[in-house]
Specification:
Radius of gyration: 20 Å
Number of helices: 10
Order of helices and strands: EEEHEEEHEEEHEHEHEEHEHEHHEHE
Low-confidence stretches: none
Largest sheet: 7 strands, mixed
Structural class: alpha/beta
Shape: globular
Length: 332
Amino acid sequence: MKAVVIEEPGKVAVKQLADPTPGPTEAVVGVEACGICGTDIHVLEGDLEMTPYPIIPGHEFCGEVVAVGSEVQNLRAGDFVAVDPSLFCGHCRFCRAGRNNLCENWNATGVTKNGACAELVLVPSANAFPLPADIPRRWGTLVEPLSCAVHGFDQVDPRLASSYLIYGAGTMGLLLAQLARHAGPSLIDMVDKNPGRFELAKRLAADRVSASADELDRPQGWDVVIDATGVVPAIEDGLGRVGRGGTFLVFGVANHDAVARFSPFRVYNDEIRIIGSMAVLHSFERAVDLFVRGVVDCEAMLTHSFTLDDYSSAIDTFRQGSGLKVQVAAGA
């Protein structure tokens, strides 16, 4: 098979490798498309201590099952599936408590195990979820990021008619905004520095979009403020926009050494909840359900597609932020 291989941080090659063979409870998926996100940049740059090299990147993917192991009962060859990349140990104290995304022995396809920027990928059969055969195949890559957004909403525990302020109108910000719209809000506002994203944000979910929250004129603040940027100035600004009794969700991935300033007195006095959301937890199957129901405008979210040979161009396009979701695929 052809595959993108990160041989060491910063060094990428496209190689021919042996096709994977499924173990008793595994499946081999012929990759239809694989999305790129910020985690892939961290893998490429060597920012994650747990990533071994060489490694095939890619954790947002969908495709057709081409082979299954002898004990697999939930899949068969020909099924079109999206795959949860999370690989939990199942026996550490966090897994025993049902908080698998905090697993002490956490692994993930495309992060610590070979991923889907390849023609074929090996996955646990239990992690593969069938999708309708009649949807555009490339749409299936959005199920994984959508499942992260669903877990984020689990953390918020939103109430009907809540007001939302979301920082960042990129892929994740727009997924979160569409979930907020589906949840029955009173108001959805978004902040983004790129005015080229305003029109789409309004079409998909937002009532108002601005380059600064100052322009949105809501002195009482918002019930739920979400940072989907990971940028410290946005986080600091957002913390000051939460209304009394409200919630601030740290969803965007900041650098591990980033530090943000906030007022602990205001957190105490206004009973503000500050919560985080990391990856996927009991949310992938629900994301599939929302995806099938059309809660997310998939076509609007997918803006660029590259071949495996053009992986470096795909990374450059992602870094430039000129579109939304960037994909790679063997047959693109």
